[in-house]
Amino acid sequence: MRLAFLSTHLTGTGHLVRTAALARAGAAQGHDVLVINGGRPLAHLDLSDLRIVQLPPLMVSADLDYGSLRKPDGEIAEEAYLEHRSNQVVEALKEFAPDILITETYPLGRRNLAVEYGAALNATGAVRVASVRDIPEPKPKRLTEVEAELEKNFAALLVHGDRDFIPLSASWPFEHIGAKIHHTGYVADRPDGAPVKGGVLVSVGGGIHGRRLLPIAAEAARTSPRPWRILVGGADAADLHLPVADNLTVEPVRPDYRSLLAGAEISVSLCGYNTAVDLALCDTPAILVPMAEKGEQEQVIRARHLARHDGIEVMQIDGLTPAALGDAVERMAGERRPKLPLGTNGAARAIEILESL
Questions:
Q1: Which tens digit of pLDDT belongs to each residue from 57-97?
Q2: Which end of the chain is more exposed for a tag (fewer CB within 10 A), N or C?
Q3: pLDDT band, residue 205 (cuts 50/70/90)
Q4: Do β-strands 181-183 and 100-104 pair in parallel, antiparallel, or remain unpaired?
Q5: Which residue from 191, 192, 171 is spatially nearest to 183, judged by alpha carbons?
Q6: How far is CA 215 from the centre of its chain?
Q7: Looking at residues 46-66, what average pLDDT do you find?
Q8: What angle do CA 345, 164, 357 make, to 5 degrees?
Q9: How confident is the model over 164-189, as pLDDT tens digits?
């Protein structure tokens, strides 16, 4: 079977990390796999084992203006740039001739790339499957429109989450396509090596968002008896200047993040999709500071559900002080927590569902 994945991450790294894990699971089952990446290449994410078509990259600005797609240099992506991308997608799909085309996020999201996704859907006679994270950003005004498109143009909707933890209906309560919805469980990529012992691990993912947390964490480290490590995402990570302390290490995101997390005394992070997966694979206590800029609810919803379990606490970035963060770290650090009851075999399960189609 020939599987083509079309994915564009505009802010963080979760979409591409998840797509890569799905592609590897397909390849492991003997399928021919192609990944078309429309976001930035990520230096810390090794995709050398996959067949990748890299489109001219897109991103959004730091203020999450999704109506203004930008090139890597920060300039607005003009019409010619977007048309060139669409043409490359069509050419790649015609050459590869997939049996199944999997669209990451679309049509529940990425409506700003509707022309590109429409061209992809029309470029091949492949079976069409939509693929989304556990909590697609709720958009009640678009619910009926999206459900109609899924009903008409897609054979299935893969939801990469645990129905018993957070069902899709918590964010997108579809009424008529229940038979097409498949909860796969969470998608975990290849495991890292042995745990790397450490103190407080602070990370806001591989993108540029969530950085409001970093100077607060750096100040909290100055009065802490523990070693702190801050991982900074984004292409400009080396240019970000934070308060210094003898017990503080600041460095770009690392490919062995899960090893660092497994060995840390406590984790301080946002609450994106990868966070839920990574925390499900270890027993490290965690402080979650969900991103809520522009009124986004995805991370807030996920954090609220995760905080129902022992050893996980939620703090809001608005009004957060170094003293409050430091106190929470000292209260929680060192005590291992019970494992989260989340299914993490979503990649293998997704491939089984695709095979059934």
A1: 998 865 556 668 999 888 999 999 999 999 999 999 999 99
A2: C
A3: confident
A4: unpaired
A5: 171
A6: 23
A7: 85
A8: 50
A9: 999 999 999 999 999 999 999 999 97
For 120-155, what is each residue's pLDDT tens digit? 999 999 999 999 999 999 999 999 999 999 999 999
Other C-beta atoms closer than 10 Å to the C-beta of 176 total 11
Cβ(271)–Cβ(292) below 8 Å: no
Pair 286, 315: CB distance under 8 Å: no
For residue 5, give the 3-state DSSP assignment: strand
Are 255 and 226 in contact, with CB atoms under 8 Å apart?
Answer: no
Report d(CA 306, CA 241) in Å as an integer. Answer: 31
Q: Which of helix, strand or coil describes residue 160?
A: strand
Please state whether the peptide bond connecting residue 56 to the residue before it is cis, i.e. omega within 30 degrees of 0.
no
Contacts 24+ apart (CB under 8 A), 233-239: 233/12, 233/13, 233/203, 233/204, 233/205, 233/206, 233/207, 233/208, 234/206, 234/207, 234/208, 235/40, 235/43, 235/72, 236/208
Q: What is the CA radius of gyration of the chain?
A: 20
List C-alpha distances in Å: 48 to 42, 153, 318, 322, 328.
12, 32, 40, 40, 40
At 111, give phi and psi (nearest 5°): -65, -20
**Angle, CA 297 vertex, CA 141 and CA 214 arms, to 5°:** 145
* Mean pLDDT comparison of 59-68, 247-256, 347-356, highest-scoring range: 347-356
Query: For the residues of 294-324, what is the DSSP string, one character each?
Result: GG--HHHHHHHHHTTSTTEEE--STT--HHH
The residue whose two tokens read 């990446």 is: 37
More confident residue, 60 or 228: 228
Instruction: Give residues with Cβ within 8 angstroms of 293, minimum separation 6.
Output: 63, 64, 209
Cα–Cα distance for residue pair 262/278, rounded to 1 Å: 9
The better pLDDT of the pair 53, 67 is held by 53
DSSP letters spanning 164-213: TTS-GGGT---SS-GGGEEE---B-----SS----SEEEE--SSSTTTTH
